[in-house]
């Protein structure tokens, strides 16, 4: 079990940072104007309360701290020339569930293909679980993610699929994060097989009304075996009318109209993006040139799914070269990607999807923030939330260079150091 304790708040100066990734071009001390990750070498960072108060070169820290808070910091921490990055923003997880699907995984490892239908196994277990059992699972997975450097976490419902069970899922998720997504349209529940439109009516009506108060987002699984583009449009339009932001699961298992639908509805993100046409890529790219700045549709890649289901990886290079904003997320769920490790996502993105190290780290931090339309996380500059990860490595490159090795040595969230104890 993991327990998370907190230190006292106050102003803390972290110095001795060998390589600081800020994701803020133009930040003090960043010397390469062409580097969107805006690395500062031999850096220091001042955390004051839950915010970053100053960032720059260590040599400038005394003057910087004085200018920022007018006094000495309450605490100084020498990180010993290690690399520091913004806390990971995991913008796609399904953590409200009970049971596991190890047997299905084992069968898949023996050659059976992944289909969307396995979700129903988790639905049965989740409906049967008590609130406290679901809470315990959430707490365990949230702590597990935090220990690996995740400081912002989106959590979806979608294993209840009744009004009461979906309402319970978003309510429990809301106890651990502000980024809650209503995914009643995950699959059609077993009791309504063959009555898909009847279920969509329920999702758009009574279920949405019950779930919207605790949710920030609405999502739909637009895929063969789940929901058609017309059904997905109904769900997303109803969610938007209820005040929820739009995100979509699409183009995971094959080509389809989900990406175009997401862009046409101004979705914050379309997730998976494994099978894309040239028109899909162009639509995603144009969402970033024609829209109000910061309101395009992010392509969120979930390479833990391809790892776990032996599917072809998405082509991040193609998206990045077209000018699409890309995020990386874990899709942590018991069926298709039972990992909460954002360091693993960075390693997979570099090895399997064509990203550079800088692009992958940016996608796992600033990219996730863009996918949640958040400007306060995923970056380290004055005013940002004081969420950061100290790596037990001299550079962020080690996240991909040493895959599978636990390199997250210290995590700070909202200005406090987390102390996961195992
Ligand atoms: Zn998902």
Give a quick set of tags describing it.
single chain; 422 residues; alpha/beta; Urease, subunit C, domain 1; TIM Barrel; 2 domains; eight-stranded mixed β-sheet; eight-stranded parallel β-sheet; 14 helices; 35% helix; disordered N terminus; binds zinc ion
General description of the model:
With 422 residues, this protein is an alpha/beta fold. The protein has two domains: 11-86 and 379-418, Roll (Urease, subunit C, domain 1), CATH 2.30.40.10; 88-371, TIM Barrel, CATH 3.20.20.140. Helices cover 35% and strands 21% of the residues. The protein is built from 14 helices and 16 strands. The strands form two sheets. Strands 1, 2, 3, 4, 5, 14, 15 and 16 form an eight-stranded mixed β-sheet that branches. α5 (163-174) crosses α6 (196-211) and α12 (342-352) packs across α13. The longest helix is centred in the first third of the chain and has 17 residues, at 131-147. It is globular and about 70 Å long. Mean pLDDT is 94; it is low at 1-7.
Strand percent estimate: 15-25%
Number of folding domains? 2
Q: Which geometry do the CA atoms define?
A: globular
Class by helix and strand content?
alpha/beta
Q: Can you tell me the CATH class of the largest domain?
A: Alpha Beta
Count of beta strands: 16
User: How many separate helices?
Assistant: 14
Model regions low in confidence, pLDDT < 50 over at least 5 residues: 1-7
- CATH-level-4 superfamily name of the largest domain: Metal-dependent hydrolases
Corresponding CATH architecture of the largest domain: Alpha-Beta Barrel
The largest pleated sheet is described as: 8 strands, mixed
In round numbers, the mean pLDDT is 94
Radius of gyration: 21 Å
CATH topology of the largest domain: TIM Barrel
- Which ligands appear in the coordinates? zinc ion
């Amino acid at each position: 079990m993991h327990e998370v304790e907190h230190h006292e708040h106050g102003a803390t100066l972290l110095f001795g940072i060998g390589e600081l990734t800020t994701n803020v071009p133009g930040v003090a001390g960043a010397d390469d104007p062409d580097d969107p990750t805006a690395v500062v070498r031999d850096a220091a960072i001042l955390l004051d309360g839950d915010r970053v108060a100053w960032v720059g070169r260590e040599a400038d820290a005394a003057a910087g701290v004085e200018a920022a808070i007018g006094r000495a910091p309450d605490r100084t921490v020498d990180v010993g020339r290690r690399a520091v990055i913004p806390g990971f923003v995991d913008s796609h997880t399904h953590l409200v569930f009970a049971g596991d699907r190890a047997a299905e995984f084992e069968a898949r490892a023996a050659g059976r293909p992944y289909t969307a239908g396995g979700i129903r196994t988790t639905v049965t277990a989740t409906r049967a679980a008590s609130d406290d059992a679901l809470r315990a699972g959430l707490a365990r997975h949230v702590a597990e993610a935090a220990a690996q450097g995740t400081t912002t976490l989106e959590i979806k419902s979608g294993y209840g699929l009744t009004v009461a069970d979906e309402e319970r899922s978003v309510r429990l998720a809301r106890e651990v994060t502000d980024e809650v997504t209503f995914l009643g349209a995950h699959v059609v529940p077993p009791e309504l097989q063959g009555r898909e439109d009847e279920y969509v009516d329920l999702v758009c009506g009574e279920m949405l009304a019950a779930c919207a108060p605790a949710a920030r987002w609405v999502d739909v699984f637009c895929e063969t075996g789940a929901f058609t583009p017309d059904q997905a449009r109904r769900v997303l339009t109803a969610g938007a009318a209820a005040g929820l932001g739009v995100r979509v699961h699409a183009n995971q298992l094959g080509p389809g109209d989900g990406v175009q639908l997401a862009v046409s509805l101004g979705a914050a993100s379309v997730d998976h993006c494994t099978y894309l046409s040239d028109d899909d890529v162009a639509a995603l790219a144009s969402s970033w040139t024609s829209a109000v700045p910061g309101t395009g549709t992010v392509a969120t890649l979930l390479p833990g799914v391809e790892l776990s289901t032996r599917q072809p990886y998405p082509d991040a290079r193609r998206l990045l070269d077209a000018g699409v904003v890309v995020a990386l997320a874990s899709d942590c769920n018991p069926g298709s990607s039972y990992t909460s490790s954002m360091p693993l996502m960075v390693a997979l993105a570099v090895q399997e999807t064509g990203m550079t190290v800088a692009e992958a780290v940016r996608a796992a931090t600033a990219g996730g923030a863009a996918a949640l339309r958040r400007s306060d996380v995923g970056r380290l500059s004055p005013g940002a939330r004081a969420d950061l990860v100290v790596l037990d490595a001299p550079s962020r490159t080690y996240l991909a260079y040493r895959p599978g090795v636990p390199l997250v040595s210290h995590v700070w969230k909202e200005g406090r150091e987390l102390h996961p104890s195992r």
